[in-house]
Amino acid sequence: MAKMTLEQLRKFREEKKGNIARREVEGKSIQIIVGMGTCGIAAGAKSAFDAIVKSVDEFNLTGNVAIRQTGCMGLCHVEPTVEVVMPDMPATIYGKVDVDVAKEIVRRHVVEKTLVDKHIYDRPAVDIVEK
User: Fold this and answer.
1) Reported pTM
2) pLDDT tens across 7-54, in order?
3) Domains along the chain?
4) Which residues pair with 93 in a beta bridge?
């Protein structure tokens, strides 16, 4: 590995601090949770996650939006999945989230406060899930 200059190290540190700050929940009223279980990753969840991060940055929402990862949401047939939890909106799980849909979720759901209807899915009902 090549040696890094002090300036490169500082830039690298700031980048990593930004990544950590995005995941911090405290003081933020909006959470975007990306399903990153094996099935989600295989279906393209990493690309969706990256698109969400970029869109949140473009809309200057970093201070109020936590972007987190979780394991499988139980909706393997519609992976990648993204859950959005925010005030004055229902907690919503979106499925079949590619890069374009990820950008649309940030723009429409988070910024404009409207649902992206054609991609809404939900968890299985509690009464049909074995415990």
Assistant:
1) 0.79
2) 888 888 888 777 676 667 777 899 999 999 999 999 999 999 999 999
3) 27-128 (3.40.30.10)
4) 83, 121
